[in-house]
Amino acid sequence: MSDDTPHRMPFALELVLCVVVGLGIAFLVRSYVAEYYLVPSGSMLETIHEGDCLLGEKLSLRASAPKAGDVVTFDDPDDAGTTLIKRVVAVGGQTVELRDGVVYVDGRALDEPYVMGKPSYPLQQHSRLLDADISYPYVVPEGSIWVMGDNRTNSLDSRYFGAVSVESVTSRGLFIYWPLTDARWL
Fold this sequence. Notes:
The chain has 186 residues and is of the alpha+beta class. The chain is 17% helix and 30% strand. The strands form two sheets. Strands 1, 2, 3, 4, 9, 10, 11 and 12 form an eight-stranded antiparallel beta sheet that branches. A four-stranded antiparallel beta sheet has the order 7-6-5-8, with no helix packed on it.
């Protein structure tokens, strides 16, 4: 007589296997597909508010570099382990100028309806950045991007630390998912 009933793993082994597979999938998704961020400051007002939760997607970065207008997250060039979120204003090879509170890229004034305040320099409370050697017109190096916060009077960005390497970009901002009352695509 043969026993045709399937044999099951012991429950404890099944549970451990499910947890390991689940953690592996979560790790892969977070490393290669998407990541969430809690926005700690108002540097992107009015587009993104302090305390908003943002979903950043990573897949498209494998196919194309960030372009002007994209909201991106990247490794802070001055503070290892910190992630910043800003808007791409210019890409490699383009020339950036700040004149009378207006941002110019390749000689053309940008139309930026999302911006809060005119660009200012420097932020006095961040004296460690006063030694930044940024002069205008500034040509963005190839393989780099020029980023600025939408809240131009309260944002540590490329005006202070220069262009950011495309390789340091960790995601493109995709969706604000919290608070639910403000959920929206970027």
